[in-house]
């Protein structure tokens, strides 16, 4: 398992309805709801953000392909929208993506680009099996703790809090190995790397103290 992003997208909301402050690799922006839904329209709403992801991925994928082919297509535009309908008791979401080119380009190139667009990474995610796993960090002050130490670090594991995300042992198998009884090996990586991994535990089951 390897996450697509080195750092997760981080978002927070406070008292101002419904401004979400979203931090990404190289900056931040605001998401909001329109006034009709009680927000202040200070940023794109979640549906717009979802569709923007598809729109930008489409354009980037096409641009890369055009560059590789050395075709003369200076501009590509895309409109994306969606609707939902109930079919046989199930909600079906349909996303329509309209691609167009301000300049005239040959039909054969358009046909090829249509196929390329269908295979862009975000299209594939949206059309395939997507699972959203939700974890919640807990305090667990009274939960039983098991300690794993060396002279650099003590890793504390609270089994009752563990939500079995698999994140620790898939990302740092030299330290976390659920197949062995003493499943945390504090000697398996530097104290700093272990601490970094401990901070990625989504449940609060892992904490650590550097000595
Ligand atoms: S990262 Fe945390 S919640 Fe996930 S398996 Fe490891 S200890 Fe459990």
TrEMBL record:
Residues 148-208 form the Divergent 4Fe-4S mono-cluster domain. It comes from the Bacteria. SUPFAM superfamilies: OsmC-like. It holds the Pfam family Fer4_19. InterPro entries: Divergent_4Fe-4S_mono-cluster, KH_dom-like_a/b, OsmC/Ohr_fam, OsmC/Ohrsf. This is Divergent 4Fe-4S mono-cluster domain-containing protein. It comes from Niabella ginsenosidivorans.
